[in-house]
Amino acid sequence: MSVKYTPVQWNNSKWVYDAVMLAGVALFLWLFISVAPGALNHEFPVNPPIANARAFGTCAFVMLTVILCIGPLARLDRRFLALLYNRRHFGVMTAAVALTHAYFVLGWYFAFFQGAERWETVLFANTSYGQALGFPFEVLGIFALLCLLILAATSHDFWLKFLTPPVWKAIHFLIYPAYAAVVGHVALGAFQSRENDTVAVIFSAGALLVAGLHIVAALKERGVDTNGVGLDWVNVGKASSIEEGRALVVRLPSGKRVAVFRHEGQLSAISNACAHQNGPLGEGRIIDCLVTCPWHGFQYDVRTGCSPAPFTEKVPTYRLKLEGDDIFVDPEPNAPGTPVDPAPAPQEATT
Fold first, then answer.
1. Euclidean distance between CA atoms 186 and 5, whole angstroms
2. C-alpha distances out from residue 140 to 96, 145, 146, 153, 186, Å
3. What kind and span of H or E run contains 135?
4. pTM for this one?
5. In the chain, N or C terminus with fewer CB closer than 10 Å?
């Protein structure tokens, strides 16, 4: 069995992204292991395995929090898009840090139950499943780790092409139950020790930040939704508001997003989701009638939704019409790659 896919090439921005990420992880671990013990003023000295486990566990949580904040931040402010484009690299590194945390934890448990297998020592150390405060937080950590490993293992473009973007995207929504499991893992584990409130503050602030940013981003997107209802043509905005070579991105009543482009005095509408990884086509520029996805450089003709030969990717197109300066879009998409004649724009865009 073989799957045809186009690999994403490395560039300078990816190298810089990864270098900064690795430096940040190294700095965080050094501060936590070398500086934090004195600052936290533990009542009793923390042995090295536990110190290492806490350092890598806290680092993984902070990284996961940053990952989940990047999405809503990019919707609130375009300057965060640079962080979004290479977020998969961040996820793979987070899985590696979480796996290292698990390694140190297994060693600590195994020191007390040397007659059993390492994984068994974690699973039978606490079996109080019938109570809330004493619930085995270990299983929540194992679940979160498995989710992160699945996301890291399927992050390669091969799986995106093989599984298809909708299935791949559905799998990668596991990051949300994984994050919830991590919060429960910490709340039922480290929070119960009450040695120091610093860790509790870090984890509580992170969880509140993720929830708050998602709520704010959702409210902002509701504010730009169109007023159209049903299956009739939807008024999506003014032609004069679209700059040459740019797009107006709107959300249709069905929930799908469409990008209306102005090119050489004409308007064309295609899906806002790139066929590669659902990247935001409406944020790309048009050159020679081809819009370039800002995520990974895939291109589409805004009149047909087709990638230029020899590439075969396609996105749905939409019919549109104008009444004065108002743009109306047929909410029913055409099949991917269906040509649609552009509509003449009545006037130049205002800037």
1. 40
2. 18, 9, 10, 20, 9
3. none
4. 0.65
5. N
Burial call 190-227: b when 16+ CB within 10 Å, e when fewer: beeeeeeeebeeebeebbeebeebbeebeeeeeeeebe
For residue 81, give the amino acid letter. L
Sign of the C-alpha dihedral, residues 279, 282, 283, 287? Answer: positive
Indicate the range of 65-79, 130-144, 191-205, 282-296 predicted with least confidence: 191-205
Q: What are phi and psi of 249, to 5 degrees?
A: -100, 125
Residue with tokens 């944020």: 283
The predicted-structure confidence for 22-40, as pLDDT tens digits, reads as follows: 999 999 999 888 877 655 5
Amino acid, res. 76: L
Return all residues near 158 (Cβ < 8 A) that are at least 6 apart.
3, 5
Q: Is the pLDDT of residue 225 over 60?
A: no
Burial of residue 300 (CB within 10 Å: 0-12, 13-18, 19+) is buried
CB 244 within 8 A of CB 263: yes
What letter would DSSP give residue 324?
T
**What is the full DSSP assignment across 208-244?**
HHHHHHHHHHHHHHHHT-----TTS-EEEEEGGGSPT
The DSSP 8-state label assigned to residue 165 in this structure reads H
Give the contacts of 27 (CB within 8 A, at least 6 positions apart): none
Take residue 256 and report the two structure tokens written for it. 């799908």
